[in-house]
Amino acid sequence: MVKPPTARSTIPGVGRLGLVEPSAPAELAALDWVNTDSVELLWSLSRAANADLALRTLVRVKDALGEEGWAELDAALRTDTGLRGRLFGVLGASTALGDHLAADPGRWTRLRGHVQLPTKQQLVDELLASVGAVPDGSASPTNLVYRAAVTGPDAVQALRSTYRNQMMVLAAMDLAAIVENEPVIPYQVVGHQLSDMADAALTAALAVAVATIHPDDPCPSRLAVIAMGKCGARELNYVSDVDVVFVAEPADSSASRLAGEMMRIGTSAFFEVDAALRPEGKRGELVRTLDSHIAYYERWAKTWEFQALLKARPATGDLALGQDYFDALNPKVWTAAEREDFVPEVQAMRRRVEEMVPPELREREIKLGRGSLRDVEFAVQLLQLVHGRADESLRVQSTIDALTALAAGGYVGRDDAANLTASYEFLRLIEHRLQLQKLKRTHTLPPADDEEGLRWLARAAHMRPDGRLDSLGVLNAEVKRNALRIRRLHAKLFYRPLLDSVARLDKEALGLSSDAAIRQLAALGYSAPENALGHLKALTSGASRKGRIQALLLPTLLEWLSDTPDPDAGLLAYRRLSDALMDAEWYLRLLRDEGAVAKRLMTILGSSAYLPDLLIKAPDVLRTFADGPNGPRMLDVDPQDVARGILASSARYDDPTRAVAAARSLRRHELARVASADVLGLLDVPQVCRALSSVWTAVLGAALDAVVRASEAELGDEAPASIAVIGMGRLGGNELGYGSDADVLFVCEPRPGVDETRAVKWANMVADRVRTLLGAPSTDPPLEVDTGLRPEGRNGPVVRTLASYQAYYRQWAQAWEFQALLRAHAVAGDPDLGLRFLTMVDEFRYPEGGVTESVVREIRRIKARVDSERLPRGADPATHTKLGRGGLADIEWTVQLIQLRYAHEVPGLHNSSTLETLDAIGGAELLAETDVELLRESWLTATKARNALVLVRGKPVDQLPGPSRVLSAVAQVAGWPGGDANEFLDNYMRVTRRAKAVVERVFGA
């Protein structure tokens, strides 16, 4: 504490006193505080949070008191340091309480002398006396029902004034240490006192309500008021809603009127009285009997409602009935963690809380942001729910008491509990100071450019310069430090005790029993907690340095895993990956030093069954998870560079098997990179499709080149024919998905002087060898080369000459084969031959004058047949991504029908890509712009969903499942906000339904 100078010969300048307003000298003169006898007063005033505000309010108080009254106050201030601390403290910190004092300045006498916090009974008596309340006919020590003599606006005014007096005394005592060497009131004491004040206020409001509703007769109903939330836990803020629930016997209209009137009076006089936590929320009955409450919680209550009951406490009214309510419902709280939907409901609640805060306020929001009060409260309540059934010592209501009990039971590390308590109390102190300023409900720090507001807050929170930083700098540093500490401890809170129980990092820690560890893992989302515990033991086993690093990493890694759709699979995958990289020193160092890498890895492992094996075989991809100058390094890769690398790498080997193995290795790396970026939401659908098509094309080209080289070496001569591979279907359109096969045609042309039969035989050998090499059994995603679209289908030769293809298409091809050619594109082999093939088929796929109406009718007939016959048995046509309503086939057939009809007139339709052709259709106004957008959105939605299915399931799947954990994972991987499975499915069905209407119009035209 800064002491005033002992010399009385000089008056400090207003700047040194923290007075910056131009009116300060005149205001000091008005108080006659410009003489040397006022030095101590002035130094005390300078320590107020806002000395100018305190001085200005004192002038108003002086004017209201008059000369005689001011002389008394002035004399008291000069001799009573406690009064100085309390008065200057409250006037410098709260404009609202300053206004309250200025309105009736005689209230200052409540702050003089030896001031003590009133007892709860004293608070009740004072409020009841303000409205002349006396015990109702049914009142007793356990039935706090009184009848007021004053009702209406007069009662509200009297209650408001008395309650504000009580708050002024508490705030003055709370703030006195800022100014003078007065005792600091602990945070818990302030919370208890505010809760006692709230109970007293509710008791007085009920007394006025009784007199209003039953002016002549005793209250006919037993009515209990149950405090919930912060009031129930006796940790109330200065300004907060007071949550209540009503129990009545009987719960008739009279009881409902009484409860409603009490809420109205309480809200008008004190604070918002909120009954939204009652059964069925605001739509439910305001008042219920005890039996009705019990029946609701036994049949209908959700997890959050049991969580709310953690803090339930009888507050006023019929306390015996309130205790019956508590005794009946409190045991049900401790079974909530065993409910089937406990984990998803808890995760959904947490997401909803995070989404409530606008992004621009997250760094300033101390209640709901990251590293906030809610993080502490949510974590503590979750641990109470998990372990409270087996350990009754955890059945406490306040956050601080619960943290103490959790530490005592070994469920939370003792140091972690102490640090978390300190950070929680710090943020609650900041919250209290923010609310005191104007007595407004707020939890948001002033913006960074409001230096005056932040400096006031710092001083009100008793923060002084520390030699390096001014008070504002100290505040900013402390807010950041405590938010960061809460974020860090939030993970350790759940997982450090688990790891202590398996790795014994802290030999003095109590650790969790196996049963407690399994309960905790189950509550954190692990459906096989016994297996998860085994994985933790394996990861941290032994005394090796790697085991110790794992134990340090795992609390944070496990928290990130708990936010993924399948933490069980994620933890198993992490163990497998760690085992595979046991000898790679860089691996754990990368996870330890690059937080972004570790978080991205956990997101991927807990979301995708497709990726773990790829990452185990291509671990260097993990290095690309790190951030570079432009974001994650995995985005710095050009797929075309990868394709060139695949061709160059395979070209080093003469043996086709080794060449294909080299190509596979780079493909594996690229698939891991692309799929990882996709799961993380870093690539859009067209980018994914182009990258997958590029790598497929490169591997196909590498295999073809290797086989041709080997054959020429074996023959000792140049190959007897040139050969080209024509991509068809989604490969030809450069729109491959993870589960797509490569549809191709092989075309050859004999070298000059080579017999055609020999050339074709050789080319068939090459094609068979390529398909065999690529289709060889492997744990990698398959490389199936499908030649089913060749002339005569699976009965025709695999390879034909260019002339043979031309003759077939001219004489024998059917309408569907011309349609298939719309997606033909040269992808590998001899580029000149590939180009000549495409030029040759142009006359069939883009015929001069367009296709005939008979061809259009045939296409429509085939489409109808596909719709009725090709959907797999048991598939849901509304959610089959390929063949279902508005799915990929619908969109692609629609685009291709328009190409067949109009490509001869619109050169832009000469395109094998569905999306690019849709652009051309829109540009040529062949469909309305809205129709084009509906088709595009449906194609992108279905492709995204189909890709997400493969990423989640690890194998090609076209059918979206019904609401389930798998669908939630698909929704999350598909980038649906919040990963809400039902909303994702509703959106999918809405988009595809609208697109189907366009499809039906086009095919019905």
TrEMBL record:
Region (Adenylyl transferase): 506-1005
Keywords: ATP-binding, Magnesium, Multifunctional enzyme, Nucleotide-binding, Nucleotidyltransferase, Transferase
Organism name: Rhodococcus gannanensis
Function: Involved in the regulation of glutamine synthetase GlnA, a key enzyme in the process to assimilate ammonia. When cellular nitrogen levels are high, the C-terminal adenylyl transferase (AT) inactivates GlnA by covalent transfer of an adenylyl group from ATP to specific tyrosine residue of GlnA, thus reducing its activity. Conversely, when nitrogen levels are low, the N-terminal adenylyl removase (AR) activates GlnA by removing the adenylyl group by phosphorolysis, increasing its activity.
UniProt-listed Enzyme Commission number(s): 2.7.7.89, 2.7.7.42
Every PII-uridylyltransferase/Glutamine-synthetase adenylyltransferase domain range: 348-494, 878-1002
Cofactor(s) needed: Mg(2+)
GO molecular function, one term: [glutamate-ammonia-ligase] adenylyltransferase activity
Protein name in the entry: Bifunctional glutamine synthetase adenylyltransferase/adenylyl-removing enzyme
Protein family membership: Belongs to the GlnE family.
